[in-house]
Amino acid sequence: MDWKAAIETNRQALKRVMVTLVAMACITADCRPTLPRHLHRAVLRLLRPAEAAARRLIIVAAHGLVVTPPPARPRKREATPAVPAPRSFGIAAVMPSAGFARLPAGQAAKGRATRTHVLPLFDPVRLPGRARRRFVPAHAAPRICVPGATARHRLPPPPAPDDPLDATRLNLRLRALAAALDDLPKHAHRFARWRARQSRSTAHNGPRRLSPLKPGRPPGYRLRPTHEIHGILADLHHFAREALDPPDTS
Q1: Is-above-0.85 flag for pTM?
Q2: 27-64 b/e (C-beta count within 10 Å ≥ 16 → b)
């Protein structure tokens, strides 16, 4: 199989989808930081399979890469630092522990925003046995009142399609996707380094991730495709499975 041709073909296809998403979200300096609800949801419906397809493209691009991980550093047993008193008991720590200096609010927020620019290499997975949290919207909450004792309160109206939603997180995810497509070899080496570390560490403490792909169907997969991205995701999922399977040496 011509892996280079498959990588470049799907990379250009993902770039076309990326241009569509950027045009929908209007990521420019003159655009507002919010989007209407219907447009925000429309971008998310295409962004989720696009991110999953980009992760699989990185896996295919890392096929055959040989990376030597840095030598493992020996673990040193050090004295456990003093843990600050929990705030739940109403006790505040007077002095921060050594090595745990806090950053100003602006620098901390800037550091968190910088980390979100990197496309995750792993599919999000749901922990087994963990029930999904139920959520009741505000406009459907029960109204409890006592006739003659309490006044009847009004519930907020249901969300409208034109309600503005914060697009900060959406813009960061789109920028991370664009950065991964522009510098695919860099992210392929990221994945190759992770696989090298996984193959080197035989003994480990606690659970660890064995595969970057979630079991079953990829995120955003559709049996009946409604957009070009769904076909791209199906093809790249197949290629990623082949790239992850060990070679047959029999």
Answers
A1: no
A2: beeeeeeebbeebbeebbebbbbbbbbbbbbbbbbbbe
